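User: Here's a protein and a ligand (D-xylitol-5-phosphate). What would the complex look like?
Assistant: Let me lay out the input and then the predicted complex.
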Amino acid sequence: MNFYISPSIIAANFTNLKKEIEKIEVFDQAFIHLDIMDGNFVPNITFGPFIVEQVRKITNLPFDTHLMIKNPNDFVEEFALAGSDYITFHIEETVFPLRILTKIKKLGKKCGISFNPATPVESIVEVLPYVDMVLVMSVEPGFSGQEFISSSLTKIEKLNELRKSKGYNFLISVDGGINEKTMRSVLDAGADVLVMGSFFFKNDLSFVRGVIENLRQL
Ligand code: DX5
Ligand code: ZN
């Protein structure tokens, strides 16, 4: 199986962030997932462009920035300048997604759309021709360490079907509750990118490596 991993530093030890990021660097096909929370769209606060810019100085891994914020249009430029490679925002936060997607592209970055577990695939169908990534939330956004919501699998399958039938090129990324038990079904449904917080940073690296390498050999 061919897939990317995107470990979220939300679950990392921030007092030793460089060491934590080095754990990601041992993998091929890896991004860093940056969970940006504003205490407004979601009931939690993480970090902003200042930290993203600092992290940019210590690694060459592609930055997969996930904006869980109100008014994403007002912040995409800052996150682009801070060194993001992919910038993804939520459909629930805007009625002008195409405007924001265009803005991200004009900044020379890849653009992504995300949607919550209670939001149907239909809500993003119109933007699919314009996106580089679709981020399927398989937990309610806000916290790492939650349980995978299995109805997300149907959404991944639907997106995969649409991609095939319409000839779209976006990556399907899945975010929330990804671990050794849920990974396989997500990949079978058609996902290309596995976002992982607790699984990656709260287990031994040798265990994580074994699970990922086994799947890649299938
Ligand atoms: C949830 C975030 C996720 C999450 C991943 O709001 O977008 O990236 O923290 O953490 P795990 O893998 O622990 O669910
Ligand atoms: Zn995320």
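Summary: The helical segments are 17-25, 49-56, 76-81, 97-106, 152-166, 183-189, 198-201, 205-217.
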